[in-house]
């Protein structure tokens, strides 16, 4: 039995070394010093977002990906105040992501998360805030320009509570860019 384990161990080591040697040189050369040091990809993004409730604004994200293509992503939606009488909706979500790359120039990124939804209501005398913690899911389609710059479009579906404590859903789309380092 120990001989079998030893042979299996040697075979797996050989396979892993062979797989590392087969990486294209271009991929090896395009790693940044941060990626070489930590073994992870850090990505920051900014996007314009329009939600089904009429809210629109900036979506700011920051994430950490392992080289096995899994990671975490923090996403914050900040509404743009076009009409001061409207209510505002802030979304702060934390996602688990899986970065699937079927083609070198295309990535599909399903996101499953949970986070705070803050609804701001403008009354005549004061502002009121309603906070709820609800699930969020999404899907990003990313076009990889190179290993550092990516353009993406995103669909997000989330739940939130309104002023009467009713649970509602919201969906929307984003378009923006992401920088990996």
What does it look like?
The protein has about 180 residues and is α+β, with helices and mostly antiparallel strands. The chain has one domain (about 30-180): Porin. The chain is about 15% helix and about 60% strand. The protein has three helices and nine strands. It has helices spanning about 1-20, 25-30, 35-40; strands at about 40-50, 55-65, 70-80, 90-100, 100-105, 105-120, 125-145, 150-160, 165-180. An eight-stranded antiparallel barrel has the order 1-2-3-4-6-7-8-9. A hairpin with a 4-residue loop joins strand 6 and strand 7 (about 125-145). The longest helix has 20 residues, at about 1-20. The radius of gyration is 21 Å and the shape is elongated. Mean pLDDT is about 80; it is low at about 20-25.
A few lines on this structure:
It comes from Helicobacter cholecystus. This protein is of the alpha+beta class and 181 residues long. The chain is built from three helices and nine strands.
Radius of gyration: 21 Å
Q: Could you give the order of strands across the largest sheet?
A: 1-2-3-4-6-7-8-9
Catalogue the unreliable spans. Answer: 18-23
The largest pleated sheet is described as: 8 strands, antiparallel, barrel
Shape: elongated
**What letter string, H or E per element, gives the SSE order?**
HHHEEEEEEEEE
Q: What is the second-level CATH architecture?
A: Beta Barrel
| Count of spatially separate domains | 1
Mean pLDDT: 80
According to CATH, the fold-level topology is: Porin
**Topology, number of strands:** 9
- Tell me the number of helical segments per DSSP (H or I, 4 or more residues long): 3
How much of the polypeptide forms β-strand, as a percent range?
over 45%
Helix content: 10-25%
User: In CATH, what is the class?
Assistant: Mainly Beta
Distance between the termini: 45 Å
* Alpha-beta content class: alpha+beta
């Amino acid at each position: 039995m120990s001989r079998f384990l030893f042979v299996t161990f040697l075979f797996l080591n050989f396979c892993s070394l062979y797989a590392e040697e087969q990486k294209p040189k271009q991929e090896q050369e395009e790693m940044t010093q941060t990626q070489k040091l930590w073994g992870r990809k850090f990505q920051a993004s900014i996007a314009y977002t329009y939600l089904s409730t009429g809210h629109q604004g900036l979506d700011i994200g920051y994430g950490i990906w392992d080289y096995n293509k899994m990671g975490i992503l923090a996403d914050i939606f900040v509404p743009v105040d076009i009409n001061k009488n409207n209510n505002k909706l802030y979304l702060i979500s934390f996602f688990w992501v899986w970065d699937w790359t079927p083609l070198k120039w295309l990535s599909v990124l399903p996101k499953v998360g949970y986070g705070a939804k803050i609804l701001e209501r403008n009354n005549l005398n004061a502002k009121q805030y309603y906070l709820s913690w609800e699930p969020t899911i999404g899907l990003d389609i990313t076009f990889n320009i190179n290993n550092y710059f990516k353009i993406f479009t995103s669909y997000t579906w989330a739940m939130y509570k309104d002023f009467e404590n009713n649970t509602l859903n919201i969906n929307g789309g984003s378009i923006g860019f992401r920088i990996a380092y």
